[in-house]
Amino acid sequence: MMNLSQRLPKFIIPIFLLFSLWTFGQDSIPPPIVPDSIVIDSIAIDTIVIRRTVDKINGLRKNVNLKIPNITFNKTKPLQEGFKRFRVPSFWEKENSFGLNVSEVAFVNWNAGGDNAVSGLGFLKLARKYKFGNFQWDNNSELRYGLNAQAGRKLRKTEDVIRLSSNLGFKKDTISNWFYSVQLNFNTQFSNGYKYPDRDTPISRFMAPGYLLFGAGTSFISKNQNFNLYMSPLTQKSTFVLDQRLADNGAFGVKKAVLDDNGNVIPQEKII
To answer: How many domains does the chain have?
Structure first.
């Protein structure tokens, strides 16, 4: 009688053993966790869903509104001002001031005496200041004119000023208050001046005198611009008297003309 092992081929036994191990064996690696998936337009998107319990709110106030607020623009107002275009900032500072002061003095049954009078004073002041970096340029102009009318006498001038000034300064750094400065001043008046009560012979007129001052030096200017100390070792002052009669009389420090016996002016080239 033939044995079973002799009838079967030799390769059948190893295949049978492998099939038994694969069928009855236990895999030690756990299967992977498949996350939830959402299908949008036939495309599966894997997502991880985290679920938690919502705690109940205890002691909720009655006036609490848990509804979604409604947004409305019914109470909105349009802008009062229109769109403003961007402008390049200016390095100039401007100051303009003008005014008219009028005062009146009236006496009625006043035993101490006095005359009724009306006075007026008009003034105009313009200032332009340029400041950029270490440069500073100040320009000022001041005009003043005053009149007085008093009972028993004619109109008189009380104040007459034309004053122009310009100051250019430079400093080495932004911390210092000392400037290298160049300054220019000009002064004169508007109308004739008299030695009252004489109204026939003026003692001053427009550009008689006129003063022009030019100087170069240094100046100290405080941070708040309230104090200005100017020192000028180099200064030139000129006096203008554009009235021949006043100039011949030597008014305002000019050289007096030489007159002959008849009161005529002797020319300079004929003076020996």
So the answer is: 2
